[in-house]
């Protein structure tokens, strides 16, 4: 396996290791949403949140497969179906806000380069903890933005539920740091 390419694919940056508190989410992803309102905001928010939930689910799936700490692997295995359910709810909600014109699927191919499989596996749990915390913080920021900007009641309920769930999930990870 090639660690650097996987890390770059998932996060946009090479993994530096560590864990600790997640950095505050950058405003870059939220900035375009701040200029939208009404239906345009709702659709953009649903797309962004679906993507973030998908990344978190992918991280949990990778930890479940490659993590070295049995308890953290078990935690990720419990998190994965929650992320998958959130994606399905968000997709359903998006179809209510804007019925789809056509169905498309995206196959994600992860090209793994630079580094040995043993090195990658030895550092995977730290990678998971660091990247999951950052992605989760972004999900929370996105949910808070929807609570303040969306006019769609179902979307606001979903954002509120996602925010509560993110706080619980991050709290559950504290024992692994």
Description:
It is a single chain. The protein has 177 residues and is mainly α. The protein has a single domain, classed as Ferritin. The protein is 70% helix and 0% strand. The chain contains six helices and no strands. Helix 1 packs parallel to helix 5. The longest helix has 33 residues. About 7% of the residues have low confidence.
SSE blueprint:
Elements (H helix, E strand, L loop, with lengths): L2 H9 L19 H4 L3 H29 L3 H28 L19 H33 L3 H21 L4
Helix pairs in contact: 1-5, 3-4, 3-5, 4-6, 5-6
N/C terminus separation: 25 Å
Averaged pLDDT, please? 79
Poorly predicted parts: 102-113
**What characteristic shape results from the CA principal axes?**
elongated
Determine the CATH superfamily.
Ferritin, core subunit, four-helix bundle
Q: Given the structure, what is the number of helices?
A: 6
Judged by helices, strands and strand pairing, the structural class is mainly alpha
What is the domain tally? Answer: 1
Number of strands: 0
Q: Tell me the major beta sheet.
A: none
CATH architecture: Up-down Bundle
* Relative strand content: under 5%
CATH topology: Ferritin
* C-alpha-based Rg, rounded: 17 Å
Helix-strand topology string: HHHHHH
Helix content: over 70%
* Name of the CATH class: Mainly Alpha
InterPro entries: DUF4142 (IPR025419)
Keywords: Signal
Protein name: DUF4142 domain-containing protein
Pfam families: DUF4142 (PF13628)
């Amino acid at each position: 396996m090639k660690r650097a390419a996987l890390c770059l694919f998932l996060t946009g940056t090479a993994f530096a290791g560590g864990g600790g508190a997640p950095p505050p989410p950058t405003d870059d992803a939220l900035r375009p949403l701040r200029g939208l309102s009404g239906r345009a905001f709702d659709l953009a928010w649903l797309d962004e949140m679906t993507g973030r939930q998908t990344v978190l689910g992918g991280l949990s799936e990778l930890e479940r497969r490659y993590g070295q700490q049995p308890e953290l692997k078990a935690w990720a295995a419990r998190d994965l179906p929650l992320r998958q359910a959130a994606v399905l709810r968000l997709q359903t909600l998006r179809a209510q806000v804007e019925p789809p014109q056509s169905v498309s699927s995206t196959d994600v191919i992860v090209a793994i380069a630079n580094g040995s499989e043993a090195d990658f596996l030895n550092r995977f749990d730290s990678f998971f903890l660091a990247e999951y915390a950052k992605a989760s913080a972004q999900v929370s920021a996105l949910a808070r933005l929807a609570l303040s900007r969306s006019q769609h009641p179902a979307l606001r309920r979903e954002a509120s539920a996602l925010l509560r769930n993110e706080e619980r999930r991050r709290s559950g990870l504290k024992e692994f740091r």
